[in-house]
Write a structure and sequence with these properties.
Structural class of chain A: mainly alpha
CATH superfamily of one domain in chain B: NADH-ubiquinone oxidoreductase 51kDa subunit
Largest interface: A-B, 43 and 70 residues
CATH architecture of one domain in chain B: 3-Layer(aba) Sandwich
Number of strands of chain A: 2
Number of helices of chain A: 14
CATH class of one domain in chain B: Alpha Beta
Number of helices of chain B: 14
Number of strands of chain B: 17
Largest sheet of chain B: 6 strands, mixed
Shape of chain B: globular
Strand order of the largest sheet of chain A: 1-2
Distance between the termini of chain B: 48 Å
Strand order of the largest sheet of chain B: 1-14-13-17-15-16
Strand content of chain B: 15-25%
CATH topology of one domain in chain B: Rossmann fold
Structural class of chain B: alpha/beta
Largest sheet of chain A: 2 strands, antiparallel
Distance between the termini of chain A: 50 Å
Oligomer: heterodimer
Strand content of chain A: under 5%
C-alpha cells in the first residue's frame, strides 16, 4: 500500500457557516444600535460601560474555562455577544461595576455552570439584566437623557394613561431615555435586516411576537386600534431589541418551526400582560425569561412528523 | 411547468463543471482484475471457477448466493489467479476472484435472449437476474428483486432516476447525453413488466441538454414522459424522488411499490437494456474520476474489476497531494485509505480532494440553530437524535423517529458547529435496527 489517505464518515464536504461567523454577524448586526447608543449617551460615557461589560464577559469565560481545565471557547465569540447584549440592556448611568457583576453572573452562573454554550436554558444577558434589576432596582430604572433624569416614554404613557406627552418620531430615532441599546428602533431594524438577509434569523419568532403583542394591546390597551398608541408601544422600551436579538437567541428558543411560532405568540401575550397590567412599565425581559423556561415544553408538543408519516407537507 | 421537488435539502457547490464536458473514454485494464463476491446487498455470490481455470470475457465466475443476491461475470479473458480477500471501496476485505488478463478479450457466448416483441415478462426478469444487474447508483440492491413486486399490475410509475444530485459526479449526465437511446430502450423493457405503468425520466434542471434530448426521443411515446426536478441535494434520494414526481410519501418501513412506484437509476437501466436486448451481462460501467486532486478529471467506461489506481492514471494521475479519496459522491460516498481497490458494480465515481474539509474543523457544542432541521429531508431533528445517539438512549432515539433517517448527510453538511450528526445517527440507527431484528 503506497498511499494512505484520510478516512472519515460521510459527508465529506461542509457548508461554510460556522458558530464563529454566525456570532460575528450578530455582533455586526448589533453595531448600529451599539454605536447609536454610545453616541446618544455620550455625555455619560456609555462607551466605557460597553467596553467593560464585553471585556468582563469574555474574561469570565476565559478564566472559568482555564481554571476548570476546559477547552477555552472565547474564540466562538458567544461570550462577546452575551456581554454586548447585556451592556445594551443597561442604563448608561449604571456604574462600571454593575456591568462587570452582570457579565460574571451571565457567563458564570447562567451559562458555564449549566454546561457552557448551548446548554443554558435562559438567555444569559437577560437573566443578568433581571438579576441586576432586582438587586439594584433604583440604579437600573433611573434613566438620564441629555442631562435630565426622567421617566422613559413608556413610563410616561403609563402614568398619563395617554400618549399626549410622548413623541413617537423621537422614539423611532432613539432620542429618548432608556437603556444604551434599546432606544433607536431604526438602528435595531438595520441590524435585524442584516440578520434576516444573512439567514441567521427568520421571521417566525419576531413576527409572531410583534403581531401578537399588537393584537393584545389593541384589545386590552384601552385605546382600541389607535395607530399612534401602538407605534408608541412598539418603539418604546426593549421590545424591538428583545424581539429581534434576544427572543431569537438560538439556544434559548424552540428548535421546532411550529414551536417558534407558539413561543413568539407567548412572548407577545406576556409582554402585553406585563406592560399593561404589571407593576412596571416594561416587561420584555421577564416575558422572554419566562418564555425561555417553557421552551422544552413547547418543543415537546411540537415535535415534527417525519416524512412519510404525515410530515411531507 | 414548475419544478418538482421536496421540502428540505441543501445546495452544496456541485463541482460538476470539472468533468461535465468530458466525453466518456474507454479504458482497458493493464493489471489483474479483482471481482469481489459481494458487490450488492444480500448474500455473497458463490464462485464457480477454480484457481488456474481459463475464463472468457462475459463468462459467469460466481453464482448468485440466494434470491437476494447477484451473479458475477469476468470482464476480461484470462486465468483465475487466486480467490482471496481483497480490499473494496467500502473499506473492508471481501473474498474476491482475481483474474490475470490475457489481453485478448475473447468473448464468451452471450445470454439467450429474444426480440422485445416476443419476450415474456418472466424471461425479462430472468435475464436481468442472470446478468447480475444491481442498483448501480450506489445501493447495489439486486434489480430483479426490485422489479418483482407482489402486484406488478399496481405499479403506476417507473421512475428513471436521472437526478444525479451528488456533487462532482457526471457519469449519468454523460450517459444521458451519449447513450440516450439505450436509456429509453431500457425503459421500454421495464415498462413491458408493468402493464399499467408510465415511464418517467426525472431530471434535475441543471441538465437542460439531457432534458431536451430525452424529450425529443420520447416525443412519440405515449407511455413515457420527461419531468424537471429542482436541482437540490438529495433530489435523487428514492423517497424524495418519488415524492417530487408523484406527491406520494413513503417512510422507512415502506417500499416504493407500496405507492405504485419503481425507481432505477440511469446506469442500471442502460444495463437492463444491454442484458435484455443484447444478452450482455453486467461487466462494465461508467465512472466519473474528479476532484481538485485529479490532473484531468473525466468520465470513463471501464471493465468491472479494474484497479482504481489505473483509473486515476487514465485521468492524468493525482495532482497536488490529495488528503482524501472517496468512492462515490462527497455526500454519501466512502472515504478510502487506499486506491488499491477494484471498481465494482456500485462505483459511480472516484473523487480525490486536496483538502479534507472534515478534518479542518473540530466539532463544537450545538447552538440549537435549527439548520439541520431545515435541511433534513426526513423532517427529523438531527441535533437531538445525535444527542440521544451519543448517550446511547435507544428509547428516545426511536421515539423521535431516528430510524427514519436515510443518512443523506445534509445535517452534517449544514451544521455550523461541525458536529458529526449523520455519523452519530447512522451508527445508532444500525444498533436499533439490529436490536429490532433480534426481537
Amino acid at each position: 500500500m503506497n498511499e494512505q489517505f484520510n478516512i472519515s464518515a460521510s459527508p465529506h464536504i461542509r457548508a461554510k457557516d460556522t458558530t464563529e461567523n454566525i456570532m460575528l454577524w450578530v455582533i455586526i448586526a448589533l453595531l448600529p444600535t451599539t454605536l447609536f447608543g454610545i453616541w446618544n449617551f455620550r455625555d455619560q460615557n456609555a462607551w466605557i460601560l460597553v467596553v467593560v461589560t464585553v471585556a468582563a464577559a469574555v474574561l469570565t469565560e476565559y478564566l472559568y474555562e482555564k481554571l476548570m481545565h476546559k477547552k477555552v471557547t472565547i474564540k466562538d465569540m458567544s461570550a462577546a455577544v452575551t456581554g454586548l447584549l447585556l451592556a445594551l440592556n443597561l442604563p448608561a448611568s449604571a456604574p462600571w461595576w454593575m456591568g462587570v457583576l452582570g457579565a460574571v453572573f451571565a457567563i458564570l452562573i447562567v451559562k458555564q455552570l449549566f454546561g457552557g454554550l448551548g446548554q443554558n436554558f435562559m438567555n444569559p444577558a437577560l437573566a443578568a439584566r433581571c438579576f441586576l434589576l432586582i438587586s439594584f432596582t433604583g440604579r437600573m430604572t433611573s434613566f438620564t437623557y441629555d442631562g435630565v433624569t426622567g421617566a422613559t416614554p413608556l413610563a410616561t404613557m403609563r402614568a398619563d394613561g395617554s400618549i399626549a406627552n410622548v413623541d413617537t418620531m423621537k422614539m423611532f430615532i432613539g432620542q429618548i431615555p432608556g437603556t444604551i441599546g434599546e432606544t433607536s428602533v431604526i438602528a435595531i431594524m438595520i441590524g435585524a435586516i442584516i440578520l434576516l438577509l444573512k439567514g441567521i434569523i427568520d421571521l417566525r419568532i419576531p413576527g409572531s411576537y410583534l403581531v401578537t403583542f399588537v393584537i393584545f394591546i389593541t384589545i386590552f390597551g384601552g385605546h382600541g386600534f389607535d395607530w399612534s398608541f401602538i407605534t408608541a408601544h412598539l418603539c418604546g422600551g426593549g421590545i424591538m431589541l428583545g424581539a429581534w436579538f434576544m427572543a431569537t437567541d438560538y439556544v434559548t428558543s424552540p428548535i421546532t418551526k411550529k414551536g417558534q411560532i407558539i413561543y413568539g405568540i407567548l412572548l407577545g401575550i406576556l409582554t402585553g400582560l406585563f406592560r399593561l397590567f404589571g407593576g412596571s412599565a416594561e416587561g420584555v425581559s421577564y416575558a422572554i425569561i419566562i418564555g425561555n423556561i417553557l421552551v422544552p415544553l413547547i418543543e415537546k408538543v411540537t415535535l415534527p412528523k417525519p416524512f412519510g408519516k404525515g410530515g411531507e407537507k | 411547468m414548475g419544478l418538482l421537488t421536496f421540502k428540505g435539502g441543501i445546495h452544496p457547490n456541485d463541482g460538476k463543471s470539472l468533468a461535465k464536458d468530458k466525453a466518456i473514454v474507454e479504458v482497458l485494464p493493464e493489471g489483474d482484475l479483482v471481482f469481489p463476491l459481494s458487490q450488492h446487498i444480500g448474500a455473497p455470490a458463490a464462485p464457480i471457477v477454480k484457481v488456474g481455470d481459463q475464463v472468457l470475457k462475459g463468462q459467469k465466475i460466481a453464482e448468485a448466493g440466494g434470491f437476494v443476491s447477484a451473479p458475477v461475470y469476468s470482464s476480461v479473458s484470462g486465468k483465475v489467479k487466486a480467490i482471496a480477500p481483497y480490499f473494496t471501496p467500502t473499506g473492508g476485505k471481501v473474498s474476491s476472484i482475481i483474474i490475470e488478463n490475457d489481453g485478448t478479450y475473447t468473448e464468451a457466448e452471450r445470454l439467450n435472449t429474444r426480440s422485445l416483441d416476443l419476450i415474456t415478462k418472466e424471461e425479462i426478469l430472468n435475464l436481468i437476474s442472470e446478468a447480475g444487474i444491481v442498483g448501480m447508483g450506489g445501493a447495489g440492491f439486486p434489480t430483479r428483486v426490485k422489479l418483482s413486486p407482489k402486484e406488478p399490475e399496481k405499479i403506476e410509475y417507473v421512475i428513471a432516476n436521472c437526478a444525479e444530485c451528488e456533487p462532482y459526479i457526471t457519469a449519468d449526465y454523460r450517459r444521458m447525453l451519449e447513450n440516450p437511446e439505450e436509456l429509453v430502450e431500457g425503459m421500454r423493457v421495464i415498462l413491458k413488466l408493468f402493464d399499467n405503468a408510465k415511464g418517467i425520466f426525472a431530471v434535475e434542471d441543471n441538465k437542460p441538454d439531457c432534458i431536451a434530448k430525452l424529450e425529443q426521443l420520447t416525443s412519440g411515446e405515449p407511455r413515457m414522459e420527461v419531468v424537471r426536478l429542482m436541482t437540490k441535494y438529495p433530489q435523487g434520494g428514492e423517497r424524495q424522488l418519488i415524492y417530487a414526481v408523484t406527491k406520494r410519501a413513503i417512510n422507512s418501513s415502506m417500499l416504493p411499490a407500496d405507492v405504485g412506484c419503481v425507481v432505477d437509476n440511469v446506469e442500471t437501466i442502460i444495463h437492463i437494456y444491454d442484458a435484455v436486448v443484447n444478452g450482455r451481462p453486467c461487466i462494465d460501467r461508467v465512472v466519473t474520476v474528479s476532484g481538485d486532486g485529479i490532473a484531468e478529471p473525466g468520465n470513463f467506461k471501464v471493465p468491472l474489476g479494474i484497479n482504481q489506481q489505473e483509473l486515476i492514471k487514465a485521468a492524468g494521475g493525482l495532482k497536488g497531494a490529495p488528503e482524501k479519496v472517496i468512492s462515490g459522491g462527497p455526500m454519501m460516498g466512502f472515504a478510502m485509505f487506499t486506491l488499491d481497490v477494484p471498481v465494482t458494480k456500485t462505483s459511480s465515481s472516484i473523487l480525490c480532494l486536496t483538502k479534507d474539509e472534515v478534518a479542518r474543523y473540530e466539532p463544537s457544542a450545538c447552538i440549537n440553530c435549527g439548520r439541520c432541521i431545515d435541511a433534513c429531508p426526513s423532517r427529523l431533528i438531527p441535533s437531538r437524535l445525535a444527542d440521544y445517539a451519543e448517550r446511547h438512549d435507544e428509547a428516545a432515539f426511536e421515539k423521535e423517529f431516528g430510524v427514519e433517517c436515510m443518512e443523506c448527510g445534509s445535517c452534517s453538511y449544514v451544521c455550523p458547529a461541525k458536529r458529526q450528526l449523520k455519523q452519530a445517527i447512522s451508527s445508532m440507527r444500525k444498533t436499533v435496527l439490529a436490536n429490532r431484528k433480534k426481537k
